[in-house]
Amino acid sequence: MADLLSTQLLFAALVTGALYGLTALGLNLVYGTMRLLNIAHGEFVMLGAFAAFWAFTLADIPPLVALPFIVLLTAAAGLAIYRGLFRGLLRNPRLAERIESNSLLLFFGLSIVLQNVAAALFTATPRALPYLDSIIRIGDLGMATDRLATLIIAASVALAIVLFLRFNLLGLAIKALIQNREATQIVGIDVEKIQRTSFALGFGLAGLAGGLVSMLGQITPFMGFPYTITAFVVIILGGLGNLGGGLIAGLLLGILETYGVALTSTNYRSILIYGVFILILVIRPQGLLGGRRIAR
Amino acid sequence: MTGPRASSLAIYFAAAAAMALLPFLAGTYYLGVGLALLSWIALAQSWVLLSGMTGYISLGHAMFYGLGGYLTVLTWQQWPLWISLPAAGFAAAVAALLLGWPVLRVRGPYFVILTYGLAELMKFVVIDIEAKLGKFGRLLMGAPSLETLYWIMLALALVATLATYLVRRSRFGAGLRAIRENEEAAETLGVPVVRFKLFAFAASAFIPGIVGGTMALRTAYFEPFQAFNPVVSFTIVVMAMIGGSDDAPGPILGALLLVVLQELLWVNAPELYLIILGLALIGFVLFVPDGLHGRLSRKRHGSDGRSRERPREHPA
Amino acid sequence: MKRLLAGLVAITGFALAIGAQAAEPVRIGFSLAQTGLFAAAAPSQLNAYELWRDQVNAAGGLDVAGELRMIEFVMYDDRSDPSEAVRIYEKLITEDQVDLLLAPWGTPHHFAVAGVVEKHGFPMVGNSAASVQLRDINPGNIWFPTSAIPDLMAVELVAMMQSQGVTSVALIANQLPFSLEIKQFLVPALEAAGIAILVNDEYPPDVQDMTAMLSGIRTAAPDAIVALSYPSDSVLYMNQAREVGVNAPFHFVLVGPTIDFFAGMFGPSLDGVVTIGHWSPYKTEWARARPFFDAYVEKYGTTPDYLDSALAYMSCEILQQAVAVAGLDHDRLREVIALDTFDTINGPVKFEGVSNATTPTSFLQFQGGEAHLVWPESVATAPYQPKEAWPQ
């Protein structure tokens, strides 16, 4: 079995964990502020990946340069969906009281639409984006440049978001909304504006993940679902709405994926990950850092 | 709500009779459609028994379906069907009892994703077992005819519908719904919450186990990735939510609508049918939030519960 | 005025009648996984089918025992679900009453549909299926032109490795049926040949990181690495093997390299990688091979999948040649497909039972971005070249 202390394994754990954490971050924002279970999250990752692909193939724009635009694109898409679908949902009291199950179905329908529109437009043939694929070697450690870039960008963005939520006024308002909806309204904060911002931010982050992922693997219209599932597992594990918890959970899964596998065997990779997930939830039903009060 | 109305019972009987006549009237293809419809009804009814009644939304019901399928495949040509299929159901129910004990402590959206994780875990365990056994997909030779499977599935759908119907009107069902409204309050009122949840979980696993076994025989091919496919779990949830997850007619309506929609779209707009399906789902949530059955029964009773049916002379 | 109208109607009716009699289209039905788990794989097959149809129609139509008729496809999406495929083929046969059938994508779908075509006695030429269990299927209604059958593959792979002086191997396998089936035959064959298996790992299909596994392989330093992987994990393997620095003169990657995006993604890193395949456009003895390749590239702007697209096209060619002789009658078709030798882009193909008896089990290697047959030497288009270290 591999040397557990190798820097190679550490690098792999960090990259995988960072990607898991980033993928989950946007989902956590949307759930935390609005209790919406976005099952279409992975589809926005897919859209971000395709955007990067087309930018590169048609206009020779490298993914890293295209990233900010991709984020804006998916954020705008998120806003459009908010205005079009959810504002109505949240205002109607009968719909709002079953917001979680309703949003599940609604986003599910949306994900089906997005996947199949993408398949109709782009065909299901897999695509690839060869970019930044040189290897940086430092002693015994080999780092693919695109993986390194992913790690740096994902970690920076995560840090930026955490700081934003802690020190920026708007960020603090978002945090307040996550913690206590009624109190935030009473204090006079414009809840509508916060919701819009969270939506845009959440979907923008999904697009960001997509742009990064476009360099790493194949791009197909149906690639989104695994990202959705991973994101959900991470945010549930970390505690719904707790962004820090989500990042920690992401890192934990990254560690399981690398060190856990190194200790046991690759055979058991999925059994290990789902097994640990279930075990932790059963012991702590609100997730690692989730609040005592379980949102209904 | 008043007692069972003669008209709604008549509808049930008519539907059951229609399905019973199908093998004599329809060709192979439509018999296959009927089989699929019945299997979804059976699955969705069982799901409603747990998730509709208690509000614990399970997104992992494929695990019972797959487990039942696996057991049937393992005992194929060793045990006769009339033993192996019920055994599959019992095994699924026992699994639910064992798993339910720790798992039902988790609530809300945590439970949703937990059940998904559980189904995936089971899938990967079966994949690993099959790999160690040196099995790479199992072909089932000499599977029963489509007609035989159809009768089995009809029975399953009837039993599942009856179960939901009876539970809904029983003390047990009332307890489950109390759990759905407010679990802590139900507990203080004396509802044996843990026992009821466990029982609902096990009961909701039984039929899906048998359905899984029957469908494995239908394809005559078993492979863990297909058998434990999350799409099964999702489809069940969608059908129950569209049709209404509160009472027996709901899953029937939901399954019927989706199957009919699929058949219609397939023929006329094959590339678009999934897109239209997705749009239909979105539309449903926005315009029919309580599901079809909820909307229909509200129309009949009005939102205050009193009958709104007008006398014949006035148009509705 | 009325007389003019009546005249026009009569002429139109007459023209239509003549048109109707002249060439009713031949309806060919099939299902493909347009959505779901296998959606990424199906386009390679659909493209080949559509290329064939367009070529035949452009030449005037399909020769049905002397009469030329245009081809019309009746296609459904089976959503990667074999039980859906069963229903679709039943529909195609009984409701849509198509004249001919083409195969769906994938081994489980072929198994599922085999029962349907047998029940209705409707002959169909299969393509994208590979398993020893195929031989258990009753012959007469389905045939498999592929030679990439797991037990034969194991034998040939070991023979090839031995010819390269391989003494040790690292074996990793995806826990999906095809890879596991090959592994089941490969391990005993390796042991019988005295090749040491230094690493023997399996992994689930949704693996995201192989660093631990690959570091172990690097430490073991085998002569050969055999990755029984599917496209997503093949991509992961190629990326991470390069990153970790796992080098060996013999690299085998099961599914992935033949898909067109792979060459685009990996460029020179793909050179030297061996994969399954029994068709290459560079085999000049097969007169149809290169034209197919060029036509595909021209129509779609990408290279065909060297395995799946070739097989799909072959099944169309076989059907075409059989129909030219036997027309649409099922019994006659069955006879012709079972007994005749067909001229395909993969050379001559003749069936024995359900299997292809003429095409040897072969392997491709990428050299300079081109897919060459390198084993067995009797069919090779280029000599095998040991893989160089990964380009950095």
Percent helix range of chain B: over 70%
Largest interface: A-C, 47 and 46 residues
Mean pLDDT of chain B equals 86
> Which structural class best describes the helix and strand composition of chain A?
mainly alpha
Compute the separation of the termini of chain A in Å. 45 Å
What structural class do helix, strand and pairing data of chain B support? Answer: mainly alpha
Tally of DSSP β-strands of chain A? 2
Q: Helices and strands of chain B, in N-to-C order?
A: HHHHHEHHHHEHHHHH
Walk me through what this model shows.
The complex is a heterotrimer of chains A (296), B (316) and C (392). In chain A, 74% of the residues lie in helices and 3% in strands. Chain A is built from 12 helices and 2 strands. In chain A, a hairpin with a 2-residue loop joins strand 1 and strand 2 (141-144). In chain A, helix 1 crosses helix 10 (224-238). The radius of gyration of chain A is 19 Å and the shape is globular. With 316 residues, chain B is an all-alpha fold. Chain B has helices at residues 6-25, 28-54, 62-74, 81-103, 108-132, 146-168, 171-181, 183-188, 193-219, 224-227, 230-243, 249-268, 273-287, 291-301; strands spanning 138-139, 221-222. The longest helix of chain B is centred in the N-terminal third of the chain and has 27 residues, at 28-54. The two termini of chain B are 21 Å apart. Chain C is α/β, with parallel strands linked by helices. The radius of gyration of chain C is 23 Å and the shape is elongated. The relative contact order of chain C is 0.13. Chains A and C meet through helix 1, helix 5, strand 2, helix 11 and helix 12 of A and helix 2, strand 9, helix 7, helix 8 and helix 9 of C.
